[in-house]
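Our working data are protein records whose layout never changes between entries. The record below serves as our worked example for the rest of this section:
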Amino acid sequence: MNCYSKDGSNMKLTDTVDLLYPDHSSAMAGHDRRSARASLPQNYLDDLEAYRIALQFCPSEPDLIMNLMREFSCDIPTIEYRLDCLEDHLREPRLSDELKAIMRRLSDNNAGLERIRGKANSFMEIHMRREELHAFIACIEDMKALWVKCRKRVSSRAMISLFECFEQLDKSQDYLSMKSDLAQLDEVFAKSIRSVTVGINFNHNMVPESCGILTTSNDRIYPKGNILDRLIFRTYEGHTQFEDEEHTNSALKNLAPDLDTALFKALGKYTDEFAQRIAAALKSRRRLFFNDIGVIEHQLGIYESAARMINYVRSRGLEMCRPKLLPKESRSAKITGMFDLVFFRQAANAAPESRGEKLVVTNDIELSGNGHFMLVTGVNNGGKTTFARAYGICRLLAQCGMYIPAKSAELSLCDHIFTHFPKEETIGINTSRFTEEIKQLAVICRTATHYSTVIMNESLQSTTPEECLEIARAHIEMLAAAGVSGMYVTHLISLYSDAQKINTKGYPTKIGSLVAEADETTGCRTYKLRERPPLQQNAASQIFEQYGAKLSEITGRQDLANKSRS
């Protein structure tokens, strides 16, 4: 692989290196897919709280993750390419530490190069340009040294292509010429003059009116030294010494620009060679200018931040895993140890000492031939909405090419995630709200395909219970006929019997049931969901039985009042 220019133009790193796509055609397909998907409902980004997830994965630049979420890749080679790169960052921490620092230095070096304009006309400019060139060479050499250290632990095509690109610079004529020009310049500097004697003419008022160079020397002029230096140590004996105190203002310590430029010009027979050699080295360096290195730096940032997030989750006793991706035709999902990343972050901040299941309760889910679409019912505040969001987040992250919050996962690809999460403050008997819900669900039913995921949360609550049940029944039948997978979180437990009748009609999707249960002894919520028919008595009835007022109490109290009056 050659990532350097042979025609004299600037190098474009992304022509040969892309950490998100395995090839140019995949990148173009991803861009086209992101554009095409913009016409589909984007509710899933808000309903699944995608931006909060993106902030957890990449706090400095969440929009990078959001772009992957909007693309929602359906290309298994692209997704696996990203997962391989992420695994390299998990396996080799130096990719997040040393490599990040080198890339930052390269980016800064590019910025410094952009500030260099015209021919050098002062010692300070020569110094600065040499520093920039030496810094660039140091970056390339450090990159090659890091590759030697990491080679055995890096296996992804993405990272190998990045390291090989820099390794190939040794074969670039521009890089070799730049190193040669810089080495010769350093050699000239080493053998060049070390001091200049300057003559200054004063007028009768002791005002300097002219100056010029008297002599040059390959030896430095040394400080006069104290009495011990002169009589005992004889430190500078035989060398020219300053008559008075040595002032250490130099090109490295803020030499006045006018004086610096004047000296440089006056020493033209020496400095012309400096300027020519530095210009030649810079010309070669400019052709090695990675004008898009920021793109690669941002891509590395995604993996670095994701690896940090995964390691943090694991440090809290939970797991994130690489999903096993299946073709969309398999229409299946099997996840163990699943949890909601949004809730995890809240719980982790609230309980810094808690770990594992004491921090966040995990659940399993399997959507297969017996139940591609689940009715999720059970106790109030039993974790049903959190469960639905966790499933959606797992699907979303998997098709971004990221690890998902679970112990293990096998997921077939889906073409889109449709969500319907009515906001609590808008739920009520409100004709306009109900009309809006029906319109949104109509879009889902008309647009969803055999390979779509649909997640509904307490939909159709903005009408009477009787109408809600009837209309919900019609919608789950349409979804079964469309062949979608997913779930519907609802309190309509009687909907299950209708689902059983729908399952006899031969639709491509079967409807199953998941139930959020309470502890049978204590009645406390377990936040565990189990595949089973809905509970006929929900938690609200249990709470009413345990804590509510009884008719007998009211009538008994009235009887006592009547007796007391009589």
About this structure: Residues 123-150 form the longest helix (28 residues). Confidence is low (pLDDT under 50) at residues 227-234, 246-255, 425-430. Residues 194-266 form one domain. The longest strand covers residues 208-217.
